[in-house]
Structures are given as C-alpha cells and as structure tokens.
Amino acid sequence: MKIKLHLVIVIALFMSVNTNAAEQEDSSMSSSQYKPTAEQMIFDGLIYRPLSLAGTLIGTGLFIVTLPFSLIGGNADVAAERLVKEPASATFDRCLGCQPDYSSHNSR
What tens digit of pLDDT does each residue of 68-79 get? Predict the structure, then answer.
C-alpha cells in the first residue's frame, strides 16, 4: 500500500513539474501543434481518464435525477452542459495527454 501511495505522489509531482514547464512555453501554440510528453500520456490514461469517465457517469446520473427540477427552473440546457457534456468532452474528445481547456467555460 505504501509503495502505491509513493508512486502516485511521485507521478503527481512529476506531472506538476511538466505542466509548469509546458505553461511557460509559448501559449499561442494551437492544440493540434501541442505534443504531450509520455508522462502526461501515462498520467492521463491511467489516472485522469478513468476519473473523468466516473465523473461523466455520476454527472449523467445526477442530471437524470435533477431533470424535473431543471425543467421547472428553465435551466436544463445549462445542467446538461455542466453535468454531462463537459465531463464527456474531457473524457472522449481530446488527445491523450492533452489538458482540457476550461478557460472558455470560466467566462460563462
């Protein structure tokens, strides 16, 4: 158990160093030009994608449960966007190792 915990901590620290270095690079690079490192791909495939898939499933369930209230409140489209579409997009629509772009979502 301690070995697994240490491994997760090392991977997380390593990924934060790589992420910080990538953020310091030219931010004008488009997503099609971005080439993630092997470490970012491993972290994404083994940790982030499964968690993102779980978030998609949980969000879908919450959307279904709260749909009557969302319809009454008139915000079913916003609830669908936040609870289903965003997590699904983070899980299935981006390249392996690429970070999801939440900057466009923060402006809403």
Answer: 999 999 999 999
